[in-house]
Structure formats: C-alpha cells, structure tokens
Amino acid sequence: MALWYNGLMDQLLHFSPLIEQTLADGGAVVALESTVITHGLPYPQNVETALAMEAAVASGGAVPATIAILGGKATIGLSHDEIEYLGQLAGGDRVRKCSRRDLPIALACGEDGATTVAGTMILAALAHIELFATGGIGGVHRGHPFDISADLRELGQTPVTVVSSGAKSILDLPATREVLETEGVTIVGYGVDELPAFFARSCGLPVDVRLDDPRAVAALIQARRRLGLNSGTLIAVPAPDEACMEPDEAEEAAARAAREADEAGIHGPASTPWLLRRVVELTEGRSMTANSALLQNNGRVAAQIAVSLSHIERSTRS
Ligand code: PSU
Ligand code: MN
User: How far apart are CA 235 and CA 164, in angstroms?
Assistant: First the structure.
C-alpha cells in the first residue's frame, strides 16, 4: 500500500490500539454500528446491549470494533467509556444519525455522530473490516415507496458483509427484497431457506442461497472478492428461539406504529427511530428483550465467519 494512502487513512480513521494491531496481524475483527445505541434502544438498555454484543463477538473469537464519529473523528473501536457516553445521548438531538449523506457533515463540523448500517459500512470498508453485525437493516417504508433506506444502496456499492436478522416488519419486506435484488446484493439464509423478519423466523420470502456454517459463508465472501464485485453481502440469521415473539404481536405492533407515524406526520430520517421507540412501547418492552438477544447472537455468528475468513486468507497467503 502506498505511503500517501496510509497517511491519508491515519488522519481520517482513528483506531483503538487493539483494533489497529489485530488488523495489522490479519486477525478477525467484527464492526458494530452505533445508531442502534443512540436511536434504536433507550438508556441504559442500549449500553448494556452494546457491551453484551461486544462480549458475544469476543466469545465467537473475534475483536469487536464499535464505530462512531466522536467530536468529528471517525473512530474504529470505541472504549467502554465512549459507548457509555454515546448511550447517555440517546433520545436527544445532540448526536447526529449518520447515514452516507451525513458523514461529511459530522466530520467537517466536529460533531458526535452515530453511524447507521450505511454509515458503518462505509467506515468499515475504509478500515478493511469485512464483517459487520447488527440487528435489523433499513428498508422500504410501508406505504412510502420512495422512502428507501440508504442502507440498501450501500449494500449495493460497498463490499462489506452485514450479519443481521433481516428487516423489521415496520418495513415493506417484499419491496425491500426487490431493491436488494436490483442492487445486486446476495442474500444468504444462515441455516434457513426463507428470509427471517427480525422477531419472526420467516416472512415467507426466499433467500438466494442457504448456507449452514461459517466456512461456507467465508468461501462465498472470498468468491465475491475474487470477482471484484464491489457490492456487499447480507447474511440473514434467524433470531434464537428465546428471542422470537408471537408473530401476531410483533406484526400488530408494527402495523399500528406505521399507522400512527403517518397520522403524526413523521417522515424522513426521524421515521425509523420513531417507529422503533413506538414498537418497544406497544410491546411493553418485549421487543427490546428480543432485540438484545438477537443482536448478541448475530455478533457471535459474525465473529465465527470472521475467524473462518481469516483462516482462509492466511492459508492462501502462505
Ligand atoms: N432497524 C432496527 N434497529 C435499528 C435500525 C434499523 O431494527 O437500530 C437503525 C439502523 O442503524 C439502520 C437505520 O441503519 O436504523 C435505518 O434508518 P433509515 O431507515 O433512516 O435509513
Ligand atoms: Mn428514510
């Protein structure tokens, strides 16, 4: 890699020493997003969940790198104190929700910014981190066919593997799947033939391929890289049994929240955080418990894939 390039990256990205060392050694790292902390869950459950997710990644054998913008600095690998700091900002407007279009603003204006799936993918790709674990990706909003999350286009143009439980049913799932197909995103069902819909094991839509273990997923990632495709890969992992909710309850809460958001005139980037908060209220916190369990599970699966990929890469290099 050219020196000028390293120099540029040094200024742009701020790595924790552990992440820097692990990446230099070709070890397994899993990126984690920060919007789920500031705009997805309330304090203090957001901090507890973020730390539990980091522990789950470690239990899978990889090093967790939570990503955010702190005072205008793109930070790869937040400390526990930094996660606590961001967590306390949840619910207010002191931290910018950073998708693709927002990243330059937060950097140039020296702000604190929480990265969405799209924002995290961009920074993870710059940092050469392939695996990224989260809960649910953004999608096409129900009844608003032009409110398409930037997450979907990011998956089409940034080579990162996103491990998630699909999308919440606050979204139009068939339309979301169509957009992912147009964007050229391979959807892998991890041990399942149908696309999981967050709290539910399936939404009746097929995945592109079913793969049952980390090695098979690592081989698919390697094939995508060898082809030089610059698109991402979506690994859809069903929620563990203890995290699944009664499909009727989850569906009813999602439908009611979407209806209420329309009545209240909520739209744009405020829409997803508003819907997530409302679903927690309507399910009396049950959706939050489920959310936390599946986030940890996805962290563990992403770690296992990252370990497998680093083994393949090391063996092909030597
Ligand atoms: N879905 C969830 N939990 C979340 C999000 C989505 O179940 O926390 C967050 C993610 O950060 C995702 C973002 O990238 O919301 C999507 O926002 P929008 O629809 O405005 O692109
Ligand atoms: Mn939107």
Answer: 6
